[in-house]
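yo, Heme transporter IsdDEF is done. seq:
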Amino acid sequence: MNIKERQKRRTIAIFLAPLLLLLSLFFGLTYGSVSISIQDILMVFFSSERSINHTIIFDLRLPRVLIAFLVGACLAVSGALLQGVMKNPLADPGIIGVTAGGGLMASLTMLILPQFSYLLPISAFIGAFVTAMMIYFLAWDKGASPLKIVLAGVAINALLGAIQNGVMIIYSDRVQSVLPWLAGGLNGRSWYHLDFMFPYAVIGLLLSLLAIKPANLLLLGDDSAKLLGQRVEWQRFLLISLAAFLAGAAVSVAGLVGFVGLIIPHIIRILIGEDYRFLLPLSAIYGAILVVIADTIARTWFDPIELPVGILLAALGAPFFLILLKKRGLI
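structure:
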């Protein structure tokens, strides 16, 4: 792809991002068991009258849509950072086990120490970070090849899954409260959950803006980055920590939602290239769009059952992952 074509695609992607985001937010607020027109939605926002529509929008749909927005943005940025640091476009917080590590720590907190539920984001971050570092060091041999990262991630994922199942059997009397969370969903999420997640997500997303320069420098290769005066291993450590923090923030509220960090950064990278000045912000916006739309579909298209959004995204993401593996000759 020549430079002019890439710039054209970049301009289109930037132009469409706010428009599609706005449409997805209205889509999430409009559809449900009760459909509300855009005109009525605007009346709710600009009128002080308390009505049924006001209750539906402000008490039920708006906090859920905003949480979906933050979850999608966090997971997409986390995936983009991991793909760059690990030099592997197949890296994703869910596929290589990062979210599984965060999920295990979060579920341990919920099952064993429910009185410390306010520590969920911190515990999820610790689990995600430790898992990411384990995978990276297991795959490292004068470089971390894509195949080694995938294999190490699959192995760690399986191990964490076994530990998770063991914990659930031991605490079987409390497991009902954790099962919907493990499926990855936003059912019942409210302003409480948004307040709970918001500071962590915003801090992580703002810090990701500071990660743009080091992420771009790491794309040059370790030797070139060192020649430019960069502390490569320290920057890699910080970027992995930030990716784990973002994944932990998302996991703490939404549970094990997967494939967002794989699909969105990969598509954006194909369209506009590797430059993190554009890749990170656009990944955040389009990741938010994907989760908002997917969650709305999951709660409306399967009425009277509300499908967890994690199941829907897994059904969409698994074929995408297999196609990537096939194209790269790994299967």
